[in-house]
């Protein structure tokens, strides 16, 4: 276990020597980084789901659409719950 910790520590030190932390920050959190892109896409998805929710439920009226209606509500609930996490 100690040997593994030593190897991991050396790997981290080598990584830190090779990677410019400013460039890494830009890649992850900068204006064109991964985090803002994901946040924008997530917002688009949430707005779309909110916008179409009523139409989907209206289109799935009637007993023959019971399963589809239930699946849509389940998906909407999962999206709403994930929104709280994001």
Task: Offer a quick outline of the entry.
With 86 residues, this protein is mainly alpha-helical. It contains four helices and no strands.
Q: How would you summarize the topology of this molecule?
A:
Layout: H1 2-18, H2 21-28, H3 34-59, H4 66-85
Helix pairs in contact: 3-4
Structure description:
The model has no long low-confidence stretch (mean pLDDT 84). The protein contains four helices and no strands. It has two domains: 1-30, no CATH class; 31-86. It has helices at 2-18, 21-28, 34-59, 66-85. It is elongated, with a radius of gyration of 22 Å. The chain is mainly alpha-helical and 86 residues long. The longest helix has 26 residues, at 34-59. Helix 3 packs antiparallel against helix 4 (66-85).
Largest sheet: none
Low-confidence stretches: none
Q: Write down the secondary-structure element order.
A: HHHH
Coarse structural class: mainly alpha
Fraction of helical residues: over 70%
Tally of contiguous helical segments: 4
Number of strand segments: 0
The separation of the N and C termini measures 36 Å
Q: Tell me, rounded to a whole number, the average pLDDT.
A: 84
What fraction strand?
A: under 5%
Number of domains: 2
Shape: elongated
Radius of gyration: 22 Å
Q: What's the multimeric state?
A: single chain
